[in-house]
Amino acid sequence: MDVVNQLVAQGQFTIIKQPLGFIKVLQWIFAIFAFSTCGSYSGTFKMKVECKDRLASDLNIEVDFEYPFRLHQVYFDAPTCKEQNKERLFLVGDYSSSAEFFVTIGVFSFLYSMAALAVYCFVLEKYRENNKGAQTDFVVTAVFAFMWLVSSCAWAKGLSDVKTATDPERVITLIQACDEPENRCSEEYDPKVSGLNTSVAFGFINLILWIGNLWFVFKETGWMAAFAGTYVPSQEKQPAPDSFGQGGYAQQDPYAGSQGGYQPDYGQQGGYNEEGGYSQGYEQQPTSYSNQM
Fold first, then answer.
1. PANTHER family from the xrefs (predicted)?
2. Per-10-residue mean pLDDT, the chain, length 293
């Protein structure tokens, strides 16, 4: 219990309130509904055969079938209306492939959703580190969305065939005694397939959830920045300008101009003399101090 309490204390369960975690919870729940309504199904339909000879009749023919719907292995005994002899008949069709595929996708979706929730709650930092976890999550989510599309469509077609193969009116045509006009064959009640219809509905609900979850996982991958145009590629080296007078390189010296800045004249002659003074070679004649006096 101490380990569990420590994990719960360190968990970041606020992620469940966010779309990324909340949709995973919905995926976990609806995956359970999908594979449980299909995998736990069992149905029964009932027929009766009234022969001309009442003693050879059978008014209570029950046929049971269940997941994974290998109907070609389901059999029942029907009267031949010839004395008290009976014949063993089998249903038609094997729809286990689509049913088992649907249930398998549901189970794996349930397991992955539970694992993803654990990662979100306990190691969210590593999940977002370098976006590797989010990118893997996005790819797996896309695969599951595609698998839900395929499995739901396949199971919807398989369920339609199961309904047809277990329709008592069609099964009656397999009984040879019902071909005789003096014998009367009818159905007592049809199998209840509302649970199977619900499983198909849950399959397409899961498809919508997994497709919708792609957007929220995509925002965690970091690919959104590239699509939004914020990705900055490596800059190419710009060619050198032809001259400093072109391409904006001939900028005005901030110290030059007519605003009183210092403007050196490189044509003037000047330098230090031997006595350590600085003499400038101006063109005008210097005025001696004694003459001014």
1. SYNAPTOPHYSIN, SYNAPTOPHYSIN B
2. 49 80 94 95 92 85 93 91 86 94 97 93 84 88 96 96 93 89 89 93 96 89 65 44 45 46 47 46 44 41
- pLDDT value of residue 15: 86
Secondary structure of residue 223 in the 3-state scheme: helix
Q: H helices then E strands: how many in the chain? A: 9, 7
Measured in Å, how far apart are the chain's first and last C-alpha atoms?
110
DSSP secondary structure of 80-137: -SSTT-EEEEE-----HHHHHHHHHHHHHHHHHHHHHHHHHHH-HHHHHGGGHHHHHH
CA dist., res. 276 & res. 53, Å (int): 149
Query: 62 by DSSP, 3-state: which?
Result: strand
Global pTM reads 0.71
CB 87 within 8 A of CB 77: yes
Number of residues that make up the chain: 293
Distance of alpha carbon 1 from the chain centroid:
34
Helix (H, G, I), strand (E, B) or coil at 84: coil
| Contact in structure between 138 and 112 (CB atoms under 8 Å) | no
Cβ atoms of 196 and 162 closer than 8 Å: yes
pLDDT (0 to 100) of residue 70: 94
Contact 110, 104 (CB under 8 A): no
